[in-house]
């Protein structure tokens, strides 16, 4: 288990941001590795924060990684390999297909409920 806890603060203008907290105030600064499809992302920055044992993490998402489908980014402790957090971007046709599939499932369930209700009304009248 990692000596750090990561809490997301925001994702704005293509930069994912979070606060890393250490188990105690004397924990050394974390070494963070962010990967996408097992490739390291460039430009990841960990800076000191106002409080002891806390740091700010900034992960710029490269424009080349934004596209159709689901893109998952894994944030891990480089020393231990423990996963601290992850985030995903969903865009394009993959999202549309998911919504259409969900709507089709909801319609099928609604039809099933309508038939069961009509059958119940016929049996009780």
Structure description:
The protein has 125 residues and is of the alpha+beta class. The chain has 2 domains: 4-91, Sandwich (Immunoglobulin-like); 92-125. 26% of the residues lie in helices and 42% in strands. The chain has one helix at 93-124, and strands at 4-12, 15-22, 32-36, 39-40, 45-48, 54-60, 69-77, 83-91. The protein has a 4-stranded antiparallel β-sheet with strand order 1-2-6-5, with no helix packed on it. Strands 4-3-7-8 form a 4-stranded antiparallel β-sheet, with helices on one face. The longest helix is centred in the C-terminal third of the chain and has 32 residues, at 93-124. The mean pLDDT is 89.
User: Order of SSEs, N→C?
Assistant: EEEEEEEEH
Query: Reading side by side through the largest sheet, how are the strands ordered?
Result: 1-2-6-5
* DSSP summary, beta strand count: 8
- Multimeric state: single chain
- How much of the residues is beta strand, in percent? 35-45%
Overall mean pLDDT stands at 89
* The CATH C-level class name of the largest domain: Mainly Beta
Q: List segments where confidence is low: pLDDT < 50 over at least 5 consecutive residues.
A: none
């Amino acid at each position: 288990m990692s000596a750090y806890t990561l809490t997301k603060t925001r994702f704005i203008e293509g930069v994912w941001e979070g606060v890393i907290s250490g188990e105690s105030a004397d924990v050394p600064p974390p070494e963070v590795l962010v990967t996408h499809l097992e490739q390291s992302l460039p430009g990841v920055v960990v800076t000191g924060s106002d409080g002891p044992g806390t740091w700010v993490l900034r992960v710029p998402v490269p424009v080349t990684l934004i596209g159709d489908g689901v893109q998952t980014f894994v944030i891990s402790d480089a020393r231990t390999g423990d996963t601290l957090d992850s985030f995903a971007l969903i865009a394009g046709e993959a999202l549309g297909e998911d919504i259409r599939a969900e709507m089709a499932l909801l319609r099928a369930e609604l039809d099933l409920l309508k038939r069961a209700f009509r059958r119940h009304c016929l049996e009780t009248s």
